[in-house]
Amino acid sequence: MQSVIETHNLSKQYGSVHALNQVNISVDQGDIYGLIGRNGAGKTTLMKIINRQILASEGSFDILGENVTRNDNISLRIGTLIEAPGLYLDLTAYQNIALKCQLAGIRRPGYIEELLHLVNLADTGRKRAKNFSLGMKQRLGLAIALVGDPDILLLDEPTNGMDPQGIAEFRQMILRLNRERHISVVISSHILGELSKFITKLGIIHEGQLIKEARLSDLEHENQDHLTIKAADLKPIVAFLEDQLHITNFTVISPTELHIFEHLQAPESISHPLIKAGILFDTLELDRHSLEDMFLTLTGGAVHA
Ligand SMILES: Nc1ncnc2c1ncn2[C@@H]1O[C@H](COP(=O)(O)OP(=O)(O)OP(=O)(O)O)[C@@H](O)[C@H]1O
Questions:
Q1: Which of 107, 119, 195, 262 has its CA 20 to 30 A from that of 10?
Q2: What are the residue boundaries of the ABC transporter domain, all occurrences included (predicted)?
């Protein structure tokens, strides 16, 4: 899979504040990459560096396999919605998009109407942006970010402050752009639950450092509810599970720990036969995990700001 964004030890220092510290993220073609972190973790700083709004103190990054320097003309490949969209509040949605098209030298007939339709703003007519709801403003910001047909979208907390319906609508829009236009997306949030429903890869950023990066499918597997068996010697347990209990859905985590993903409702259907057979184990217990638990454990506490 081709990598669309690859950062190499990106760091940013503001005086004594390490806003970013040696960050390496890797976004593949077709990913919806969720960048999750508490307020002040460094999400905006990372996006601004990739968008070349600010310079890194150290490190570099590649976009679509090319190492980016200050002079590379790659700006049209990236569409951004970072912080509040820069809208002209006295203009309509059409006029706002038209201005961006003018700057980008795009004059294709029907182009603006297509974008308005894409973000569900086709019926806003003469209504000025100042009279839009927050969700409408963000969707207009998204349409403006799409001018120039970027390969990559950088969206910094785009659903912040929206109601659940607005969030769901925005999410659907991102999914469509990703599937139908094959746009790779980096989207940040401080609420994991908002991202975990649709992202393909997750990066957890905390106090300027990337403390975890993983594909969502792997994380979901790791964080599935399971029975944990701990024992000094797992070999007789593994043999017993397979040969006597015909259990195959388990993973050996370490020489002394294994996780079983079945029989969750009846752990005794495993523990009793083991005891009867004289096979020793230290503990056998049910572990319930969620991605949110993992996030809280890694970042040390409640995340909702
Ligand atoms: N221009 C600046 N000057 C000084 N410090 C800054 C500047 N911009 C960001 N910082 C600091 O860098 C750190 C990371 O900020 P950043 O805005 O990237 O975090 P964030 O994860 O996007 O948080 P939020 O969700 O609050 O926007 C914070 O400690 C912030 O105060």
A1: 195
A2: 5-232
